[in-house]
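Dear U.,

For the methods section draft, I wanted the exact inputs and outputs in one place so we can describe them consistently. I've listed the two proteins in the order they'll appear in the manuscript figures. Please don't edit the token lines directly; just add comments below if something needs changing.

First protein:
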Amino acid sequence: MKRNAIVFALATLLCSVGFLPAHSQTVGAPTEGKVTQEGKPLPNVQVVLTNVDTGRVNKTKTDKGGNFVVLGVAYGNYQVDVLGEKGEKLFTEKTSLGTGNTSSTNVLNIDIPAGGAAPDNKFGLPDPATPKLTKEQLAKIKADNDKIAGLNSLIKEAQDARQAQDWPKAENALKQLIAAAPETSRWDFYMALGEAQARSNKFEDAAQTYGKGVQIAQSIASGSTPPDPKNPNASPAAAKNGAVRMLTSQGSAYLKLQKADEAIASLKKAVEVEPSSAIGQYNLCGVEFNAQKFDEAKTSCNKYLQLEPSGAHAEEVKSFLTQMDKK
């Protein structure tokens, strides 16, 4: 009976994997910045980015603070125009956007001089035309954008399958996603894949997948891998939380395989990462108790009671301690 209660607690954490954000990848790179006039924010003006190589136009408006964001700006040469509320041109210049790194963000801050648009240079003559990209450069940009669009499609497919609880389909999409981006720092892809495998009773596969995800998450949490500022799951705090959840889920998978020692090892790592987690100490206490590792269980159970003396599992943990004292 007690063992069932512990397994249920672990399974609760296993089910808590969040949905993948559909906007986690974009075609091209986000472009953000601020429009000012003599240093003062310029709200409600239109920022127009025109790709001089393809003719594609991206438009947006500034907010009250003069800030703007444009998603999915393909790499290339651009004419940047700022238009007033009546459509009058306040600013124009040519620039290149994008570095070829799909995780980068273009920063484009614009300060408009008093009196509106300034001449293109101090002599009032137009600047030389921005050089056209070569066929090879354009081909690489297209290939990069096609790859990111493909990743987007797989993310959407995995998200839809998880919502429909079609775990085999979710597993297939997530495997393709990871194979297409083997160097990804997206530990949450591995957590979602581990969940899909566990839901399909592939507990050995799930345990291995969680292990890979934990390595990535801990690398971000420790600072070894720099976080992606556009991915909310890439912050050290989020990665640390993800590592704890995956270690707990890995422990649950090992319990399903009746591998108590491996489950205890995973749960010990979880409480090492987050020693102040009462539920972590409770899970470890219960699994150690069921495995009759009473000396270790007493330590974990007492740590739980120190953290939550009146917690939801306090009476159950006290019962464990009472039974162990009689051994």
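Second protein (the one for the lower panel):
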Amino acid sequence: MINLPKKIPVFPLSNFIIFPKTTVPLNIFEARYIQMINDSMKADKFIGMVQPMNIKDHQANTPKLYNIGCMGKITSFKETNDGRYLIELKGVIRFKIVREIKNNKDYRECEVDFTEYQIDLNNKEESVKFSDLELIFKDLKSLFEKRGFIINWNALEKQSLSETINALAMASPFSIEEKQILLEAINLDTRKLKISEILATYSFDQYNNTTIQ
């Protein structure tokens, strides 16, 4: 059983989400986040990834944060010759921000609650059939290609369904708000439906390339 912390450092990264059981590489170069990684490596290696809103908290002179993020654990760490950190972060469980904690550090910390997302710690694979996703994948593949995104679809299809759906949700050319909707979807089946709903709002014609025939 994972010993979940009540307080975590948070890394606000726009248009970037992670899901439980997915692993993402991060290139850390800002001094405040290098300090955050140093402190995290000395403690439990947990970091909260959360999207900033396009709204500023003028009192604190920082962007306001969405209420829901995902806590990850540093599973790989490497320091480069020029002082950057290359890490891999594996998603563990989503959280709700209770409040931001005032501190004397250069990075932000929050008190968090994991109650609503205990499902993330369940190792049982959710029962979503790959055949149910074929139409969604077809539309998503079209959107990716029209936007110039390159995805190794064959490699994706060899993963579990949860890994595939979450990887596509993370990499999708959706807006910050749309990615937040996917992050907050309580389970995989809901996330699949939300991807389908978001795709339905896109007019694929507007992404047609301009290659001369």
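Candidate sentences for the figure legend, describing the second protein: Residues 134-146 form the longest helix (13 residues). The chain has two domains: 7-121, 130-203.

Thanks,
Y.
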